[in-house]
């Protein structure tokens, strides 16, 4: 779309367009051409768009302040871009109006007049970077272009009639300039830093505040394990609890030596205090470590005897058994589907979804019986490919590919992870071909949905 408009705007005397959104990053794609147009008239298709410069295009909020899914290098240029856009709009040849009634005008339209003739485009593309096809992952749009003079003139007449109707449209040029002034304003580095932190962690902060109320009610913060944690572990435990409550699952992927076990124990204690039943699955080699804490074992070296942990402990290999005992658990009569929280230590052992243990875990522990939250612990959730990560995520979604559609705006997990794996593989091969591997480029190619899934 941007390529077509560049050609159509070359030497243009007049440019009319209708769009629900206008962003400076969309402007940047056409800035050189726009600044030479004789007259430009822009009609906002939605009144709220004037006050909302972010079209909410389901992009990663880690990098989004004005238009979503942008790399940091794009954001660094944002202030200068806003000022350039301001200088262009301040020209008397640029006019901006807005529909005054919501949900009245949904179409998008671009009309140009130049010495070479007239052209028009009608369709779905907003005046944004993704809408105009300028990003690595542009929107899927449908547009119809025409250079038929009769058709273009009919579209111009329709636009002019609506533009001149003061009952339906209003001048919003000063409002747009005010919004741009806010974007281009100079802020102290400290203010920018705090604002960035807030935007990145906004949802998590809200979830933690809600969780803190529950923690106070249950007495969770009076537990021995909570008070044994370092500050970063307490922050991690709060975050895990919030994600379990919101998404029904979480992967705690702290590096080796950062105390994932203690953080997980704090999470377990929280849910035990909420009267939820907990099952811990660990590798056989770690069985003795985890058996230290349950009160029923009466271990003299238990550092948290007052917390009286009541979780059930089994080994990964017990998923391959249907009889005999594991500790004091009779596997022949064990009800795998009776747990509200499942904790899987070294969850990367379940990276293969074709394995018998994986399938039994999914069907008999997670999908069957009561609703089960899943906490996975692993310093290496990805071993050979991102498919390893996908299969572990499926454990928390009960195998449902669309599980995060509503909560995160993330589509089919299989499609998303397959695409991300291809992009990662392509990025890895750049080094083998002697090219420099750019991490910023990788983030952009992995896509906003993938990053939002990781940050969810």
TrEMBL record:
A single BP term in Gene Ontology: DNA repair
Molecular function per GO: ATP binding; hydrolase activity
Upper lineage: Bacteria, Bacillati, Cyanobacteriota, Cyanophyceae, Synechococcales
Keyword Coiled coil on entry: yes
Helicase ATP-binding domain residues: 241-399
Pfam families recorded: PLDc_2, SNF2-rel_dom
Keywords: Coiled coil, Hydrolase
Organism per entry: Candidatus Synechococcus spongiarum 142
Protein name per its UniProtKB record: Helicase ATP-binding domain-containing protein
Coiled-coil ranges (or none): 410-437
């Amino acid at each position: 779309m941007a390529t077509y408009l560049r050609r159509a705007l070359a030497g243009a005397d007049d440019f009319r367009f209708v769009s629900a959104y206008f962003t400076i990053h969309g402007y940047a794609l056409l800035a050189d051409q726009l600044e030479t147009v004789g007259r430009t008239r822009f009609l906002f298709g939605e009144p709220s768009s004037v006050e909302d410069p972010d079209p909410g295009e389901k992009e990663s909020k880690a990098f989004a302040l004005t238009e979503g899914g942008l790399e940091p290098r794009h954001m660094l240029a944002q202030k200068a871009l806003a000022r350039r856009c301001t200088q262009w709009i301040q020209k008397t040849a640029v006019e901006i109006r807005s529909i005054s009634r919501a949900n009245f005008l949904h179409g998008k339209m671009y009309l140009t007049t130049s010495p070479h003739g007239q052209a028009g485009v009608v369709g779905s593309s907003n005046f944004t970077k993704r809408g105009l096809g300028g990003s690595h992952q542009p929107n899927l749009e449908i547009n119809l272009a025409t250079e038929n003079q009769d058709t273009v003139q009919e579209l111009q007449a329709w636009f002019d009639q609506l533009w001149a109707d003061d009952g339906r449209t209003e001048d919003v040029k000063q409002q747009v300039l005010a919004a741009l002034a806010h974007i281009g304003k100079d802020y102290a580095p400290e203010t920018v830093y705090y604002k960035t932190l807030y935007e990145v962690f906004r949802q998590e902060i809200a979830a933690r505040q809600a969780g803190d109320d529950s923690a106070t009610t249950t007495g969770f913060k009076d537990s021995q394990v909570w008070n044994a944690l370092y500050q970063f572990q307490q922050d991690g435990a709060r975050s895990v609890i919030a994600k379990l409550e919101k998404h029904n699952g979480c992967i705690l992927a702290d590096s080796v030596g950062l105390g994932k076990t203690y953080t997980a124990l704090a999470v377990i204690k929280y849910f035990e205090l909420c009267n939820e039943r907990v099952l811990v699955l660990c590798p056989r080699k770690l069985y003795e470590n985890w058996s230290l804490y349950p009160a029923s074992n009466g271990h003299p070296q238990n550092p948290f005897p007052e917390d009286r942990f009541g979780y059930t402990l089994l080994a990964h290999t017990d998923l391959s058994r249907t009889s005999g005992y594991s500790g004091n658990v009779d596997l022949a009569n064990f009800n795998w589907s009776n747990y509200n929280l499942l904790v899987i230590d070294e969850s990367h052992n379940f990276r293969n979804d074709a394995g018998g243990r994986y399938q039994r875990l999914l069907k008999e522990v997670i999908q069957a019986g009561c609703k089960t939250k899943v906490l996975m612990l692993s310093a290496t959730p990805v071993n050979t490919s991102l498919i390893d990560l996908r299969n572990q995520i499926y454990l928390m979604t009960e195998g449902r590919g669309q599980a995060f559609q509503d909560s995160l705006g993330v589509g089919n997990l299989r499609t998303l992870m397959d695409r991300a794996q291809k992009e990662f593989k392509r990025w890895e091969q750049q080094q083998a071909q002697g090219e420099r591997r750019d991490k910023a480029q990788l983030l952009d190619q992995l896509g906003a949905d993938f990053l939002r899934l990781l940050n969810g």
